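Input for the complex:
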Amino acid sequence: MKTRFAPSPTGYIHIGNVRSAIYPYLLARQQNGTFILRIEDTDQARYVEGATELIEETLEWLGMNWDEGPIVGGPASPYFQSERAEIYHAWGQKLIDMGRAYADPTNAETIQKYRDECNAKKIPYLYRNFRPENPPEWKPGIPLRFKADPKPRTWHDEVMGDMSAGPEVQDDIVLIKADGLPTYNFAHIVDDAEMGVDYVMRGVEYLSSTPNYLALYEAFGLKIPKLVSLPHILAPTGNKKLGKRDGAKSVTEYRKDGILAEAMLNYLACLGWNDGTEQEIYTKDELIERFSLPRIQNSGARYDETKLFWMNGQWIRKIADEQGIEALYARTDGFWPENADAYDDNYKKRVLGIIYDRLKVLADLRDMTGYFFTDPEIDLKMLTENKFLKKLSEEELSELLQVSVRKLEAINDWNTDTLQAALNELLEETGKKPAELFSAIRLALSFAPFSPALHLTMEVLGKDTSLARINRAVNALEND
RNA sequence: GGUCUCUUAGUAUAACGGUUAGUACAACGGGUUUUCAUCCCGUCAACGCGGGUUCGACUCCCGCAGAGAUCACCA
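Predicted:
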């Protein structure tokens, strides 16, 4: 059993594109089949340098390894359509020999004229009504057209159900272009046959062309693969399919923001598919096990970045809780603030251990952990205008912090338990509410809008740094 | 315009003739010794419209409307 992902290297690969790789991948793995990557680079004008590498990187990052295709090779090599011209020519010749294809010498202007005539008469434009009477012999430089056999056709789509179409949508499509390379319409049929592909999964936009493909399968006497139309992913606003123009981000960008591959795969797989249960978080293995074609949604699904971010937070916590902070730490390379470079892994791991449950994306580390690595800039307003502290005078604030310093100085064994105990004693001795005492110390330490629980923060910061920071704040208050 | 497809809360979805129409994200409110977050609790919120079929319709049928796709020597 074989499935394939057949992208065109026309630029970066965005989330709308990736999903059409996920489903065939899942299906192939579930049925111990083969997942093929084929590069459809027959449009030289739209070809973008480096796009193939980007596709490969993206699939690798998501953990979707392919069994046949670029890099790994395979029995139907090559897997770049631009390198398969001879194969398409041979198949084209077969059609010519059967009398089912002809060279078309008509120039573009004339074709446009035909089209305009039809539009003027308000009748559907079909090229087969203008077939040249004495087509020349086919040779390079002249497009090759299919000789359609229009008739009612019915077929089954694994997602959309039973389909039918009349002759009015079947035409003499171009098989091989003047540049000698095949059109998508022709190339994918030939390749799927040569490569033994059993499931053709692609976006619904190909649904309208399916009758033409059916005619081609029939002409060649090919077994029709299972046809699977995948609904579109819609842009966050409007009703358009998600595309680069709507600012669809590339998968690479999300990776740089610190979206985990697991979360990306999970979110995309569940956008337009569910297994009927209320489960939301799926590992790759669970997706492989549960995936089924009939449960693919048949209407478009709107892309919702907020939910992706939520899911990423879930995955950050899942990895930390199930595999340990070590496993999560291994993913954080490149996401720390610059000034963290001077610190060792162990320290950063401890920081991660107390901060991870407030991360949505790994890049949040940059904004949220700065004060663990450098003394924060003193901003007295954060203290004096804090909603719990603004009723205290600067003198009272200073006094409160000095009392705290004396209490904390007395701690010999600096750990979360002794710190918690000291803080509780301070509450009693000062008679302050937690909101006042803790806010004052927290801000003196971090001058950050938020930070982990106080005793955890101080434990990681260490006794010397913690006390020095509070004293610093006291001095600033005294000299204000 | 022709042809085709789709239609449950703001979003993603569950239901497969009988439910107070379930869940999650978002929003809003509350709780967990400070903040932000996590976690927990709660609130708001949906079957596009109109006909049938049926004892009974979100579920089946037919119209309509709305949305989308396609009509290339692009994929």
